[in-house]
Amino acid sequence: MQRVDAHQHFWQYTEAEFGWIPDAMAGIRRDFGPADLKPLLDAAGVDATVAVQARQSTEETDWLLALAGTNPWIAGVVGWVPLVSEDVANILETYAGRPKLRGVRHVLQAEPDEYFYCEDFHRGLSFLAGRNLVYDVLVVERQLPAAIALVDRHPGQKFVLDHIAKPRIAEGLLEPWAANMRELARRPNVCCKLSGMVTEADLRGWSEADLQPYLEITLEAFGPARLMFGSDWPVCTAAASYDRWLGVARSFLSRLSADEQAMLLGGTACAAYDLKF
């Protein structure tokens, strides 16, 4: 079984470009590269990763693809391109010879609700399916209705929901997140990442019991064949080590059959992103 971490980041830290990192996570205000991650993957028995954008620039997309070119275990990149640009089709064409670009993400969680209905944004999205590129959906729980409407406009597009839509775990709130997750999961072209949960909980005092209801609902809604494990490293390290979060996920998944665990820990990511390694 190939084990895949479907969501991790690399970055070269600057205060100006990473102002989204709060004081509570000050420990991740530094550079993170492949040499920092590879020993953790080896220790955990993870074979490959998907590196996801952290800055909204094509320069970062190019940098991540260059890292993937020299580190075969980076099996795919979810980069950023200016989807609202009139020239987006030509920009995407420049990446046609870069097979490790497997998806695109724009940080919707930082946008006003109106952005979800922006015609230029939808026009840009319409070019992805023909290039077999996934769109990663990064939203917070209150934006799930808008995300559902977005997905409904692109039934032929593959979507992956990041971080189970960032529910309010620290507050112990399940609704309306749970109802909206079940509704979104009714769309067969949407997969979901079990990722980003520990940083939505109490950073210093979270427990597995705090995460359990959110894991249960996500598994019930999407099923093993449309779920994939992601570490959200190095962001996760503000609340848990790589090994601890992976251990929580594996413990929760231990109830599943061997085939179902294999899907969640690698198979779903390979299928959704069409990874080859």
What does this protein look like?
There is one protein chain. The chain has helices at 34-44, 58-70, 88-93, 119-125, 144-152, 177-185, 208-222, 242-253, 258-273, and strands spanning 4-8, 48-52, 74-79, 101-106, 134-137, 159-161, 190-194, 227-229. With 277 residues, it is an alpha/beta fold. The protein has a single domain, classed as Metal-dependent hydrolases (TIM Barrel, Alpha-Beta Barrel), CATH 3.20.20.140. The protein has an eight-stranded parallel beta sheet with strand order 1-2-3-4-5-6-7-8. Helix 6 (177-185) runs parallel beside helix 7.
Brief descriptors of the model:
TIM Barrel; single chain; 8-stranded parallel sheet; 9 helices; alpha/beta; 277 residues
In short:
With 277 residues, this protein is an alpha/beta fold.
H/E order of the elements?
Answer: EHEHEHEHEHEHEHEHH
Strand neighbour order, sheet with most strands: 1-2-3-4-5-6-7-8
Radius of gyration: 17 Å
Q: Could you name the CATH topology?
A: TIM Barrel
What would the average pLDDT be, to the nearest integer?
97
**Corresponding CATH superfamily:** Metal-dependent hydrolases
Helix count, DSSP H or I runs of 4 or more residues: 9
Low-confidence stretches: none
Estimate what percentage of residues fall within beta strands: 5-15%
Helicity range = 25-40%
How many domains? The number is 1
| Biggest sheet descriptor | 8 strands, parallel
Question: What is the highest CATH level, the class?
Answer: Alpha Beta
Task: Please give the number of β-strands.
Answer: 8
Terminal CA distance = 13 Å
CATH architecture classification name: Alpha-Beta Barrel
Structural class: alpha/beta
**Global morphology:** globular
